[in-house]
Amino acid sequence: MGKTREMKKIFLDTDVILDFIMKREPFHLASSSILELAKQDAVKVYASASCFTNLYYVFRKIAGGNKAKQAISSMLLYLNILDVSGHVIKISLESSFSDFEDAVQYYTAINNKMDILVTRNISDYILDDIPVMLPEEFLKTF
Q1: DSSP labels for 82-135?
Q2: pTM to 2 decimal places
Q3: Rounded to an integer, what distance in angstroms lies between the CA atom of residue 12 and that of residue 15?
Q4: Which fold has domain 8-133?
Q5: For residue range 60-82, what is the model confidence (pLDDT) as tens digits?
Q6: Which of 6, 74, 131, 137 has a CA positioned 20 to 30 A from the CA of residue 116?
């Protein structure tokens, strides 16, 4: 019997998900490819609960409330939602991150023992308790 490869737990930053939903070029292909891996059960993909409020807020302005809700509903087929705890909010406020949202994403990923955090803004993630990769870098690991 061969060894089975343990499924990686991938945390997606809000921007990567927005790239997919909004079909933002040149980033859409990479975000779409990651979600396709999730669809094929090659990886488990996660996002924070707070990510979804941000997705709705941004996409609603462009496409309207109903389309924003439909887009989020379709994302739930691929994404697992992680709670944002009071502890995560507190450590994010006290952290050295300049962007509070990035801190919340980072500490949610850490708190839930994610294997990799995928973002387009690597320089925003100043700590190294978890590997942080661009979507294209992550895809090269498959």
Answers
A1: E---HHHHHHHHHSS-S-HHHHHHHHHHHHTT-SEEE-S-GGG----SS-EE-H
A2: 0.90
A3: 8
A4: Rossmann fold (3.40.50)
A5: 999 999 999 999 998 898 899 99
A6: 74
